[in-house]
Amino acid sequence: xxxxxxxxxxxxxxxxxxxxxxxxxxxxxxxxxxxxxxxxxxxxxxxxxxxxxxxxxxxxxxxxxxxxxxxxxxxxxxxxxxxxxxxxxxxxxxxxxxxxxxxxxxxxxxxxxxxxxxxxxxxxxxxxxxxxxxxxxxxxxxxxxxxxxxxxxxxxxxxxxxxxxxxxxxxxxxxxxxxxxxxxxxxxxxxxxxxxxxxxxxxxxxxxxxxxxxxxxxxxxxxxxxxxxxxxxxxxxxxxxxxxxxxxxxxxxxxxxxxxxxxxxxxxxxxxxxxxxxxxxxxxxxxxxxxxxxxxxxxxxxxxxxx
Length: 307
Known about the structure:
elongated; 10 helices; D-Maltodextrin-Binding Protein, domain 2; alpha/beta; Arc Repressor Mutant, subunit A; two-stranded antiparallel ribbon
């Protein structure tokens, strides 16, 4: 039994398919299947039930895969600890972003990261908060940029910046006549929000002090740009985080914007990571890079000096 065998069985369990598991492990399917059969013979038990249509874990197989996953996490921590001892600011880093942050922060971050950390190779993943948290738990991500504080005791987070909410509405809408638009001024029946699963939707509902009632329009939009297009089509109004309002692109759509005049109308952005992540100097360095040259529309929070 070796680490490779453990990675093979966890891959099959994750994908539920030998072919896809082999592809993820960068080996041929016959090689992966043969190695798993040898492991089953060594252990004297069946890990998987196989037929022509499906692959299922046996009862003991489920327990073995759980143990294999724990062992792989430990070996990864050993590798990272050794790497951090050599040079915590080099090597590989897996970084996640939520969709309402990634388009506006990633270009800025990549440019400065390459300058400040030339020996660091960063892989990016964009996804919704729940999945990014899961990827942090199982080690598929090292750190994530999220708009919610961690609710898992295994995580730690550095606050990066506060980002105010802006209201977006068509030119000619009644809101243009108001000065200092407040949350209470927003017509709830016109409010367009992202689909469920996006934390920005939940934050918008919370800021507006309303629940997800039927009159809150569900448009199943998965991007802020889709919401903007719907507002431009005259279907309602929406809220955007401050960094999404930058530039002239909204005016090109014939839309007007105004920052909400409400002290609670903002979201806090965090750099979230596992408490066991060994490269603490890299975490602080990343926080400093992310906060460099932020637009005036947001309020920087991370002021810790670099070490």
